[in-house]
Design a protein that fits this description.
Blueprint lengths: L2 H14 L1 H14 L24 H17 L7 E5 L7 H18 L6 H15 L3 E7 L6 E7 L4 E5 L5 E8 L3 H8 L26 E7 H4 L11 E7 L4 E8 L4 E2 L4 E2 L6 E2 L1 H28 L3 E3 L4 E2 L11 E2 L11 E3 L6 H19 L16 H41 L17 E5 L2 H25 L11 H11 L10 H43 L1
Antiparallel strand pairs: 1-16, 2-3, 2-9, 4-5, 5-6, 6-7, 7-8, 10-11, 12-15, 13-14
Helix pairs in contact: 3-5, 8-9, 11-12
C-alpha cells in the first residue's frame, strides 16, 4: 500500500467522525476545559475556564475520573491477578508461577519510564467525559534496558474503523514529533531527505522543527497485499511522514497494541458516549445560567443601582470606598434623599440558591457520585444491618464499574501480558509449569467492590461455623454435612491469601493423615498404659488377698 493510499483511508475516517467533534468540544467546554481544543486551537498560557461561572461541573467530572483509578486500579493493592482456564485444576507450582508473573508484569507497568500512571490518568479523564479513550502500548527497544511505553492520544487526533465482528480493524493517529524525536526513535537513515543533512537548518527550526506524521495500525490483509514479509502477523504498524509522503518505518505485530475502552455504544457507530455527560450536559448548562443570574442578583443586592436627584448632584457620583459625592447646598432634603438605592425585592434569592443546590445534586447524581461511597450510618447498627448496606452499595456500584473492568483493565492487561510474554519477560515458555501451557490467560481484578464480594466467602464461613456449633449441641453427626477444609480454603482465597502461603491439597491431606496416625498411636499408647495400670492394680490386689 502506498503512502498516499494510507492518507486517503485516514482522511475518510477523520471526515466521517468530524460531526462528533462538535459534541466533544461542547462537553469539554463544560466539564473538561483542558481538553476543549477539538474545534479550536489553544495556545500555551491561555485560560481554560474563563467562560464558566461555576466550577462544579468540572469538579464532578474530576471526582468521577479519579474514582476510576481508586476503584479499578488502586496503587496500594495488587489490583489484578493472572488466571487461566479451569483454574481449580492448576497445580500449586502453576499458581506460584502465575503469582510470580503477576509481580513481574506489575513492576514493568509501574516502571517510571513506562508512563503508565500518566497515560491512564489522561485516559480516565477522557473516558469520564467522552465515554472512550485511546491508549497505545509499545516496547521501547532503543535503550540499554528495554521497557514498556504507554501513551494516551487525544481523541481529536485519532480515528478508527471496526471489523465485521466489532473488534478494532484499523487505527490512525495524527502525530507531530520533532525531527530530533524521529531520529531518536527510528534513526536518521529512515527519514526523508528533506528532514536530514543540509536541508535541516537553524533558519527553519533545525532538528526541533515539528513534522506532520501519522501512526497507522492496520490488519495485515488490508495493508500487506503482495508483501509476504508481513503475512505471518495479524497487524502492521506504519509510521508515515505525511509532509513528504514517506514511510519512516513499518513492521508486523501480533496485536494492535491499542487499548480502546468504550463505555456506552449505540448501534451503527464505532464511537461511544459517556452516560454521565449525556445526562449531565443540560444540567451543566442550566447551572451556569443559574449561577450567572444569582451572581448578578447578589451584586445588585450588595451594590444596588442608585436613584439621584437631577441638578442636586454636583459632579460625578463617587460610590467607591471613601468617595465623596457633592450635593447642591440649596437642595431641600425634605423632598427626598439626594442619592438613594432603588428598592429591590430580595425574596427570590433564597429560592434561587435552593434551586441551584437541587441542580448541583442532579449533576452529582448524573456523574454517579452518590454511587461511589457507602451511605452514612444511621445510629447504632448491627453487623447484619451493616452487611445489608454493603450489599446495597455493591448492587448499586457494580453495574457502573464491572463493564469498565472488562473493557478498560481487561484490554490493557491482556495486551501488556501478551507483549511481555513474546518479549521474553517471563523467561522461556519451556520454564512454564506444564499444566499452564496451552491454556487461555485471563485476568481477575481486585477492587474495593470485589473485596466486599469476595469477603462474603469468609463471612459465610463464619456464619456456617456458628450454625454447625449450634447443630452439634443436638446432633453430634451434623459436621458430616460440611466440608470444613474446602470451605476454609475458599474463605482464605476470598480474603486474598496468596497461593504460596497455602499448602496444596495433597500436602494438607498428608498432614491430616499423619495427625490421624499420631492420634491413633497416642490412643493405643494410652490404652496400653491403662491396661498396664489395671494389670498392676490387679496384681497388687491379689497380693493383699494372699497375705490376708
Amino acid at each position: 500500500m502506498k503512502p498516499r493510499d494510507l492518507v486517503v483511508r485516514a482522511g475518510q475516517l477523520f471526515k466521517d467522525r468530524k460531526a462528533i467533534t462538535t459534541l466533544w468540544q461542547e462537553i469539554a467546554e463544560n466539564f473538561y476545559p483542558q481538553r476543549a481544543d477539538f474545534t479550536i486551537r489553544r495556545y500555551v498560557g491561555e485560560e481554560f475556564a474563563e467562560h464558566l461561572y461555576s466550577s462544579y461541573p468540572i469538579l464532578v467530572h474530576r471526582d468521577l475520573s479519579n474514582s476510576f483509578a481508586a476503584m479499578l486500579r488502586p496503587r496500594a493493592k495488587e489490583w489484578f491477578m493472572i488466571e487461566v482456564d479451569e483454574m481449580d485444576q492448576v497445580s500449586r507450582a502453576g499458581k506460584i508461577w502465575l503469582e510470580w508473573a503477576q509481580k513481574r508484569m506489575r513492576a514493568a507497568m509501574y516502571d517510571r519510564r513506562a508512563h503508565f500512571i500518566r497515560a491512564t490518568s489522561e485516559g480516565d479523564a477522557d473516558f469520564a467525559a467522552f465515554g472512550q479513550c485511546i491508549i497505545t502500548r509499545d516496547i521501547n527497544w532503543n535503550t540499554e534496558q528495554p521497557h514498556l511505553l504507554y501513551r494516551c492520544f487525544h481523541l481529536r487526533d485519532s480515528a478508527w474503523a471496526e471489523k465485521a465482528d466489532g473488534s478494532l480493524g484499523e487505527i490512525y493517529f495524527k502525530w507531530e514529533p520533532r525531527i530530533r524525536q524521529l531520529i531518536e526513535q527510528f534513526g536518521e537513515d529512515s527519514l526523508h531527505q528533506q528532514l536530514k543533512g543540509p536541508n535541516v537548518t537553524k533558519k527553519n527550526g533545525g532538528d526541533l522543527r515539528k513534522v506532520k506524521c501519522m501512526r497507522c495500525v492496520l490488519s495485515t490483509d488490508v495493508y500487506a497485499g503482495q508483501q509476504e514479509q508481513f503475512t505471518a502477523y495479524p497487524f502492521v504498524v506504519v509510521y508515515l511522514d505525511c509532509e513528504n509522503n514517506h514511510i519512516v518505518n513499518e513492521y508486523g505485530v501480533w496485536s494492535h497494541g491499542t487499548t480502546l475502552p468504550r463505555w456506552q455504544t449505540v448501534s451503527g457507530s464505532q464511537y461511544a458516549y459517556s452516560p454521565a455527560t449525556v445526562a449531565g450536559l443540560p444540567d451543566a448548562r442550566l447551572l451556569q445560567a443559574m449561577s450567572l443570574t444569582l451572581l448578578e442578583a447578589g451584586e445588585m443586592s450588595v451594590r444596588p443601582p442608585m436613584i439621584a436627584t437631577q441638578d442636586a448632584i454636583r459632579g460625578d457620583v463617587q460610590l467607591y470606598s471613601g468617595g465623596i459625592t457633592w450635593a447642591d447646598v440649596e437642595y431641600d432634603e425634605r423632598k427626598g434623599d439626594v442619592l438613594r438605592p432603588i428598592t429591590q425585592d430580595r425574596r427570590g434569592l433564597p429560592m434561587g440558591f435552593e434551586a441551584r443546590e437541587q441542580q448541583m445534586g442532579m449533576l452529582a447524581e448524573a456523574f454517579y457520585l452518590n454511587k461511589l461511597t457507602l451511605p452514612p450510618p444511621e445510629g447504632d447498627m448491627t453487623a447484619f444491618e451493616v452487611g445489608q448496606r454493603v450489599e446495597e452499595y455493591v448492587r448499586a456500584a457494580l453495574p457502573l464499574f464491572e463493564p469498565m473492568e472488562h473493557e478498560y483493565n481487561g484490554q490493557l492487561c491482556e495486551d501488556t501480558f501478551d507483549a511481555l510474554l513474546r518479549a521474553g519477560a517471563f523467561g522461556s515458555v519451556q520454564d512454564m509449569p506444564p499444566d499452564l501451557r496451552g491454556r487461555g490467560v485471563h485476568f481477575k481484578f481486585i477492587s474495593p467492590l470485589h473485596d466486599a464480594i469476595e469477603r462474603k466467602e469468609a463471612s459465610n464461613f463464619r456464619e456456617a461455623s456458628e450454625l454447625i456449633l449450634t447443630a452439634l449441641e443436638t446432633d453430634p453427626s451434623a459436621l458430616a454435612y460440611y466440608d470444613t477444609g474446602l470451605a476454609l480454603r475458599t474463605a482464605l482465597e476470598g480474603i486474598g491469601v496468596q497461593a504460596k502461603h497455602l499448602r496444596s491439597e495433597e500436602a494438607a491431606r498428608e498432614i491430616i493423615a499423619q495427625n490421624a496416625r499420631q492420634a491413633a498411636m497416642e490412643e493405643q499408647a494410652a490404652v496400653a498404659r491403662d491396661a498396664g495400670a489395671a494389670t498392676r492394680e490387679f496384681a497388687q490386689a491379689e497380693k493383699h488377698l494372699a497375705a490376708a
